[in-house]
Amino acid sequence: MTNHKEVGKVARSSISSRLVTKANALIEASYSLTLNEQRIILACAAQLDGRKPLPKDNLFTLSVDEFSDLFNTDMKSAYREMEDAVNKLYERDIRKIEGEVKKRMRWVYSAEYRKGEGKVKLGFSPEIAPYITMLHKRFTSYRLAEVAELSSTYSIRLYEMLAQFTGTGLFIITEQDLRNRLQLQGKYDRFTNLKARVIQPAVNELNQKTSLHIEWKPIKKGRAVDRLEFRFEEKAQMALL
Question: To which protein family does this belong (predicted)?
Answer without folding.
Answer: Belongs to the initiator RepB protein family.
